[in-house]
Write a structure and sequence with these properties.
651 residues, alpha+beta, nine-stranded mixed beta sheet, 33 strands, 17% helix
Amino acid sequence: MIADYLPMTRRSLMEQTREPLTSRFAVFLEHCNDQPLVLPISSGEGKGFVGLVDSPSTKINLGLTASTAAAGGVINLEPDAHANLFSPINDNQHDGTVGYRFTFENIPLIGGEITLVCSEPVDVIVAHRDHSDFELEYEVTTTKIKSNSASDKAARGEIVLKNVQKAVRPLKAKAITKKVNGGNRLLKQTTDNVDIHDETESSVQFDYSNPGEFVLVQLEIQNPYSGGQIHRSILVKTELESLVEVSPLDLKSSFVDDEGDLNLIFSGIDFDRFEVVLLKTLITVEWNGKTLKNSRIELQGMTQNGHLILNGGWIRTILDQAAKKYGSCDVFDDKKECWKVVVAEGLALDPENMYRVIATLSSAKNPAIGKNKNLLSNAPTKEETEISDEMKRGRPPPDFRRLQEMHLRGLQSASQKKIMVHGYCTSSNPFPDSHFTNEVSFADPGYPTSRRERRLGGLSGGNNWSNDLFARKIIQYAVNNGITSCGIVAHSQGGLAALHLYTYYWSCLDYSSVSGCRMIQSVGSPYQGTALSSAADLGDIFGFGCGKNDDLTESGATSWLANIPTWARNKVYYWTTSFKDNWLSYDYCHLGTDLLLNDPDDGVVEQSRGQLSSGINRGHKVDWCHSSGMVKSPHYLDSSRNSEMNAYACY
C-alpha cells in the first residue's frame, strides 16, 4: 500500500492527470490503381510517405494536380523503397509492406492536392506532416445506447476538437475495417457495424455495434502560425469493453490490527470482471469536530479484494502533533469520541483501461473501528515522526518478512539474479547474454493473463500487456524460478513494468543483498508514452503487430505516471538515444514512425518522452536506434552502456 500526504494544491482525488489526445499528421487509407487517386496536402512544406500493403513490387507515380503545381508547389519522391513499415510494432518481423519517402514545399496557403497512380491494384497508406508541427488536441467520449432492438447500435462515440474553435470545413469521417478475400487483406471503406452521422465543424458522432471497427476522421484546419490550411487525421478504434458504468463504492468494514494499522474493506467493485484495481482513498483526521489541516493522507494500492491497509504511524503522528498544538481533545459526539478518522473520498481505477474510474465513494465515511482503536492514539515512534519507508510503502506481508529475516540470518540460501526484461510486442531478451553476468532472461510464465488475452483466445506475434499485468508476470516468473533477490535491466516497456512492480508489489526487488547497487536500469523506456499508438492502430487494421497498448499512449502513460510516487522513481536509472541529426539531410531511425515522432527520437521513443521526473537520468546518446531493422544499430547492443549496467545492477 502506498501512502503520502496529499498536497493542499490538489483538492480532490478526482483530479486525475490525463493528457489530451493529439494528432500531428494526416493519414489516408485508400485503394490505388491505374486511375489517379487525388488526396489533399497541407500548405507550406513538410514530408511524408506512401506505403504499399501486400504488393511490394507495385510501381507508383506521385505528383501534384495541375492547379497545385501552377501555384508553385513542389513534390519530390525518393526512388528507394523501405521495407517493413510496421516492424517497430511487430517485433521487427517481415510484414510485406514497402514505403517511399517524399517531401513537399511551396504548397499555397489554401492547401493543395497530390495525385497517386499505382501499376496494379493495391491498398495504400499515404501520410504527411507539415513543418508547423501543430498538434491538434481532441477528446473521444463513448456512451451506451439503451435499446430493445438487437439490430440497433450498442454504443455511441463522439470526437470533439479541443484547441481549435472549428475546422475550416465540416469534419469528414468514414468507417474502416478489413475483409479477407482469397487470403488477401483488402480495405473495406464502409461497414454495417459503424454509422457515421452529425458531422460538424467541431465534432463527429458515430454509432457502432461491434468492437474492433475503426473510424477515420479527416480535418482541414487553419495553421495557427501561418494562417494556411493544414490537414490532420484522427483514427479511433471502437471498443465496447471500454464502456464501463461507474458503480457506487462503499466502505464495508474497518478495523485496527494487532500491529496498530488501519484496515479498510471496500465493496462495490466487480472483481469477477476487473480482477485487479487501483483503489485510492483520501483519509483525514478530525480533532474536536474539525478536520486537521495536516491530515490529508492519500492511500492507494493494487487490490484484488478491496482491502487497503494504512500504516497506523500516520494517524499516531497526526494525533501527537494535534495534542502538542491544541492541548486536550474534548468529547464532541454521541459516540464519546474526541477524534475520529474520516474516509473523505474513494475511487477505483481500472489499470487495464487507461486508469478509468470504475467506482466512486458517494460521500465521506467514518470507519467504525472498534477493537484496537487505542493503538492509533499511542505515542508515535521516532521512525514514525520522520515518516518511515514502511509508512509510505506499508508493512511487508508476514511471509515476505519471514523469508527476509531468514536471508539476513543466513538460514536459507538465496537465488540472486539480474533479470533482463524485454519490452512491448516481443518475447525475448534483446540484450546480449555475453554482456552480462549472473543474469536470467524474463520469459512469459503464462500466468496471470489479461481480460484481453482471454477474450481473443491468446495473442500471436508478441505480448501486449498493461504495466500492471507485466509486473505481475515478472513476480510469477521470479517465483517459478526460485529467484528471491534481484535487480532488473529493462528495455522499452520493461522499464515501466519494473517501476510499476516496485511501486505496487513486494518482490525480489525489495531485498537485494548488494549495497550501493541500482535496482532498476532501463534503456529506451517511454515513461511519458509514445505517439506510436497511431501506428499500432494502423497495424491493427492491416493485421500487423500486437495492437494499441493504452499504458504506452501519451494520455495513458500520463495517467499511469501520475500515481507513481517520487520514492519509487528515485530507484530508476535510465538512458535515451536517437539518430544523429545532420542539418542538411532528412534523418530518421525508421521511415514508418518518423512522421509520428518529434525529433530527436530512437524510432519508437522521443527523447522528451523518455524522461522520468525524479528518476536518475544517465544521459542521451546519438547514433543508436530503438531496435533492429532501423537505420542505426539498436541501443541494447551498446557494449559500453551494458558494461556499466552489468557492473552496477542489483541482484
